[in-house]
Specification:
The protein has 19 helices and 8 strands. It is of the alpha/beta class and about 575 residues long.
Length: about 575
């Protein structure tokens, strides 16, 4: 038996000192790795140069070949003074907004000069180190140019990680057709004109705009957005899509309330949207690639009947090794059509690929930045899809609106109350959530809404047992991004021409894509409010289930869970549109 040193008694004080010394050593290492101006976030030491905030960063003990933070989200950090002012503004009363203020014009948020970064010129004679140095120099100059040309307070959050932009460049190089996926609720804010000009004008590649999550919007509004993009971009092909038509959801679709519709165990292919995408691709390839296998796959899916309670989701297929090599552009190489899927975070790119496949092939999450690098999935033997990580493009979109768009991780917010204000001034969430003022007043502020929701849900702080307004605000914002509280922006002139859009013949086509009956789109809000009263108890039970599962956000499925009105499955959109 080996002779070891006799154990020495170890006091609690000694253990505490050991942990403190270990913490100091770790901080010393971190200070060496980080730039000096990011060492502190206090108001006194906040540099005039904008700091970079790394979101969802994972702790790393030893930097090896696999760096989990290589594709971490990087945004400019808000100054402590700005955060403090927004927190003070949360105590001010709400000012209701008119319906016309939901109409937006995208040109205001994408001024000239605010373009996306493109890959600098390169050739095969350059080494990897030379190419990376050129790209790094170009990107640094690009960010500096934007900061000097625009007021940082007017700029939105946008991606500052060069590695993520490289993934976009790689996908654009590989693809013959570029799918730009946007959320129908905020579609014009998610489609930068500079991206269209670069792909269509410089790369000379075909682009298809996918208006996704149409199950969250009324059918007339979907038709209006479709016509808006066709008029603004004549050469752009516009399709509508939903990854969750009614047959991919559990529950009685005539019920409303806060009840979330659950995905079925076996996802059927969203055959209606897949058929439209196939027809569009056939027009583009013009017979150069045979797509009969894709057509056959769709027909087989339509004819197949599933026992949803017995069939489980198939295994997830992900590209484990990242392909970062450079290839020379060769159209339809080996007879394979490559379709690239790009867009901002949380627009449903991965869910769209899963719906096209009819099974789970790409991991999804409600957290922005979940997809770390592009993934290649073969739809058929000669059609492959490339899923690019979500990219937040530079713009002048208000940061509070970006939170509701799902572009910024809610759990990382320092101040969520300004987003609550934006939501509450445009939707009557006080009535919808049946909130009671804590002080019994009639005047509401964002903080009052959070306090009322915290009291209703029983959210208390750990030590002082005060109402946890921060947790309440985060939960309300998650409900908004998931579609339980649905805010839909409108194209210019929609409110004055709402009756015309409701009578548009294309509404029937949208209802077909949503896999819904036309009579369901003709219900009035009063009918839904009556159904809501009968379903209130069930809604409370579902809220309790959601509260238990909110901590497992990263492993949850993509956010398209809703109620219904005018072709929707969401009770709150009845008052939003």
């Amino acid at each position: 038996m080996p002779q070891g040193r006799r154990k020495i008694p170890f006091s609690g004080r000694a253990k505490k000192q050991q942990l403190q010394a270990k913490k100091h050593r770790a901080q010393a290492v971190g200070q060496k790795l980080l730039p000096s101006h990011t060492a502190s976030s206090s108001e006194e030491s906040f540099s005039t140069e904008l700091e970079v905030h790394k979101l969802n960063q994972q702790p790393v003990k030893h930097l090896g070949k696999a760096n989990p933070n290589r594709y971490v989200l990087k945004f400019h950090r808000d100054s402590p003074e700005d955060v403090r002012q927004r927190k003070e503004a949360a105590l001010l009363g709400l000012a209701s907004r008119s319906e016309e203020e939901l109409e937006i014009e995208a040109d205001i948020y994408f001024p000239s000069g605010l373009d996306l970064p493109v890959r600098p010129p390169w050739d095969f004679s350059m080494s990897k180190i030379e190419l990376e140095a050129r790209e790094h120099k170009y990107f640094t100059e690009y960010v500096s140019k934007i900061q000097s040309k625009f007021d940082p307070k007017e700029l939105s959050y946008f991606e500052l990680n060069l590695e993520t932009w490289r993934q976009l460049w790689r996908v654009l190089e590989m693809s013959e057709i570029v799918l730009v996926i946007v959320d129908i609720r905020f579609s014009s804010l998610m489609f930068p004109p500079s991206l269209y000009n670069y792909v269509n004008g410089i790369l000379k590649k075909e682009m298809i705009l996918i208006l996704n999550k149409i199950d969250l919007a009324p059918a007339p509004l979907v038709v209006a957005w479709k016509h808006y993009f066709k008029q603004k971009y004549p050469d752009l092909r516009v399709l509508t899509f939903t990854s969750f038509p009614s047959y991919n959801l559990y529950g009685n679709q005539s019920k409303t309330g806060l009840k979330s519709q659950r995905r079925r165990g076996k996802m059927k292919m969203a055959a209606e949207g897949a058929q439209k995408l196939l027809e569009c691709c056939e027009e583009i390839v013009k017979g150069e690639v045979v797509l009969s296998s894709w057509h056959k796959k769709i027909l087989e899916e339509i004819k197949t009947e599933y026992d949803d309670d017995e069939i489980e989701i198939e295994e997830t297929t992900e590209l484990q090794k990242v392909d970062t090599s450079f290839v020379e552009d060769e159209k339809y190489k080996d007879g394979v059509l490559t379709i690239g899927c790009i867009g901002q975070p949380n627009v449903g790119k991965s869910s769209l690929m899963n719906a096209l496949m009819g099974k789970k092939v790409v991991s999804v999450s409600k957290t922005p930045g979940h997809t770390k690098h592009f993934q290649t999935i073969y739809l058929t033997h000669n059609v492959r899809l490339c899923d690019c990580p979500g990219l937040v493009f530079p713009s002048r979109v208000p940061k509070t609106l970006q939170v509701l768009m799902g572009s910024y991780p809610i759990a990382q917010l320092q101040e969520p109350y300004s987003a609550i204000r934006y939501l509450a001034e445009r939707l009557d969430i006080i009535k919808q959530l049946n909130l009671q003022h804590v002080d019994g007043n009639d005047e509401w502020s964002p903080m009052d809404i959070c306090e009322a929701w915290a009291k209703k849900r029983g959210y208390l702080t750990a030590k002082a047992a005060r109402l946890d307004t921060y947790r309440a605000a985060n939960y309300l914002l998650r409900m908004a991004t998931e579609g339980k509280i649905c805010l839909c922006l409108r194209p210019p002139g929609f409110t004055s021409n709402k009756g015309t859009w409701e009578k548009n013949p294309e509404v029937k086509e949208i209802l077909w894509l949503q896999a819904r009956r036309e009579e369901e789109s003709q219900k009035q809000p009063s009918e839904y409010l009556q159904e809501e009263q009968s379903d209130e108890e069930q809604s409370e039970e579902d809220l309790n289930e959601d509260a238990e599962s909110e901590q497992s956000e990263d492993s949850s499925s993509d956010s398209s869970k809703t109620g219904e009105y005018l072709g929707t499955k969401n009770k709150f959109s009845a008052l939003a549109v």
